[in-house]
Design brief:
About 55% of the residues are buried. Strand 22 and strand 23 form a beta hairpin. The strands form seven sheets. Strands 1, 26, 27, 28 and 29 form a five-stranded antiparallel β-sheet that branches. The chain has a five-stranded antiparallel β-sheet with strand order 18-19-20-21-30, with no helix packed on it. The protein has one helix and 30 strands. It is about 0% helix and about 35% strand. With about 525 residues, it is mainly β. It is globular, with a radius of gyration of 21 Å.
């Protein structure tokens, strides 16, 4: 999010209680030429040491530091993998120029050896130093090109806010100047939380680029601005050279009730959307999942909903309710870093089965919950618990990210405090499903040491420490690549790991270790 979270603007700091991931669903291919001799499954030919034979299929996994620059803090990392080359990964995050003043811009990283070593590209070009850029998401196109969507905010009473897309034609080594998707004066429309997807199917929308974001009327929603927050959409049909005029596509549903001041009585317009995520199904259907929130931070709970378009965003279905959730919005006392239940959304590139996960505080601690749809989002399964620690033990699991490999394995990464008796220190865990989300295997610890969220944390204008609202994740049939911020060096830096995927770990574990579990809510 840009600046402080809009949800948190509704709370005074003294009463705080406290994701998206991006995932595409288009078919993916692995074009590595097979070698004449058998290649071990936990090896990527041409990759670095972290993806070569001889690395342990079990924890501990090598933790690779991605950021090596002069910026003072990094957070909200996102990651994408080239579907035609699993050695090529592109990531980005906030690069803080002045954490004390909560000043940052978006920077980027690239890897061409499977995530074992990284090039630091610095901040995205084309923005003046005083302009804030935030909330990056990435998507690969059909020709090894990669697109980065960000919001920008010029600041000041009449400064502009908007959404832009930058393109790299060399696998993320360099990016060109941004192309405007939408802009307006920030006190008229504030554009927040953009997410991007590219249609990689062979259908009529092949190559279309889709961007969705929150369209805040009358400026940033929250605080004393009881505005509506609609779901904005734009697309490019020419490889990101131009984008269509903005469309507001949230629709109406009987569960979209909101007691905001000035809202017409009886309105069912779904105009309180935050953190929308697009994915493209193997048949070219575009799906967008989003939380529907109470912009007054009042009595109505957060609802998760989904809409779809079968014609590239020309027309849209009515919203379908996925789940009503217990949002973690606020702090985890006694800690002071902010949180909220941004979901992660993904689908199976073969079957089009949809998956959604989020952090839910239905008990006294936060858990990762998961649901799936086998009928194009019309109905959703009862949520199950993904984290496998003891229920109600006080540990918090939050900021899930999710992706589905070409072979259908579902991977979810998340922050987790289970290893610290005081539940302060954070680790990264991964959970995987090899049965289309019916159950999840034993959680795997990714981090080799726990990290303290209070170290070097920027502080926003409302007194909340900032470790980000979400993390990154990319997957293939060989490896899972969590992408997270971590303070083990004494500063917020970006780290990653190459975790062998479930099929590899199953082959090297005992049946007791890989037993599946399903836990209801």
């Amino acid at each position: 999010m840009c600046h402080s979270s809009k949800r948190l603007r509704f709370f005074l700091p003294v009463i705080f209680v406290l994701m998206i991931g991006f995932s595409a669903c288009s078919p993916t291919t692995n074009t590595i030429t097979p070698t004449p001799t058998a290649v071990p499954a936990n090896t990527l030919p041409g990759g670095g040491d972290c993806v070569k034979q001889g690395q342990h299929a079990q924890a501990p996994f090598t933790n690779v530091r991605v950021s090596h620059d002069a910026y003072l803090a990094h957070s909200e990392p996102m990651l994408a993998e080239n579907p035609r080359n699993p050695l090529n990964l592109v990531g980005g995050s906030k690069f803080f120029t002045n954490p004390a003043r909560y000043a940052f811009q978006i920077g980027y990283f690239s890897s061409f050896d499977g995530g074992c070593s990284w090039n630091d590209g610095g901040v995205l070009p084309g923005f003046d130093k005083q302009i804030t850029t935030s909330d990056v998401s990435f998507a690969f196109g059909n020709h090894n090109d990669v697109y980065a969507a960000v919001l920008f905010d010029e600041g000041g009473p009449r400064g502009k806010s908007g959404i832009v897309v930058s393109k790299s034609a060399d696998g993320g080594k360099t990016f060109g100047n941004p192309v405007r998707v939408f802009e307006d004066r920030a006190d008229q429309v504030f554009s927040d939380k953009p997410w991007i997807a590219v249609d990689q199917t062979d259908g009529p929308q092949r190559g279309f680029i889709y961007v969705v974001w929150s369209y805040d009327h009358k400026g940033t929603c929250g605080g004393y601005n009881n505005c509506s927050e609609e779901l904005a959409f734009s697309r490019s049909t020419d490889g990101g050279k131009t984008f269509s005029p903005v469309s507001l596509v949230e629709g109406n549903a009987p569960f979209c009730t909101n007691p905001a001041t000035g809202r017409p009585a009886g309105s069912t317009k779904c105009d309180a959307m935050q953190g929308a995520i697009p994915v493209v199904g193997p048949d070219g259907t575009l799906y967008v999942a989003s939380p529907y929130i109470d912009v007054m931070s009042g009595p109505i709970p957060t609802r998760l909903l989904v809409i779809n378009s079968r014609d590239g965003g020309t027309s849209w279905s009515s919203p379908v309710l996925i789940a009503t959730i217990h949002d973690i919005n606020g702090w985890f006392p006694p800690e002071r870093y902010r949180n909220l239940s941004l979901p992660a959304f993904a689908c199976d590139p073969r079957s089009g089965q949809l998956y959604l996960t989020w952090s839910d505080k239905g008990t006294r601690d936060a858990d990762i919950l998961f649901t799936t749809s086998r009928d194009h989002g019309l109905t959703w399964s009862a949520p199950i618990r993904v984290n496998d620690d003891a229920p109600g033990n006080g540990a918090n699991q939050f900021q899930p990210q999710m992706a589905v490999a070409p072979d259908g394995v579902v991977s979810i990464s998340f922050f987790d405090t289970r290893l610290d008796a005081q539940h302060r220190l954070i680790d990264v865990y991964v959970a995987q499903s090899v049965d289309d989300g019916a159950s999840f295997m034993k959680n795997v610890r990714v981090t080799t040491q726990s990290w303290d969220p209070a170290v070097d944390a920027p502080v926003d204008g409302y007194g909340s420490q900032f470790i980000g609202d979400y993390q990154g994740l990319a997957v293939d049939d060989h490896f899972v690549h969590p992408f997270w911020n971590d303070t083990r060096t004494g500063a917020q830096e970006i780290l990653t790991a190459a975790v062998p995927s479930a099929q590899i770990r199953v082959a090297s574990q005992s049946p007791a270790t890989v037993s599946h579990f399903v836990s209801g809510t």
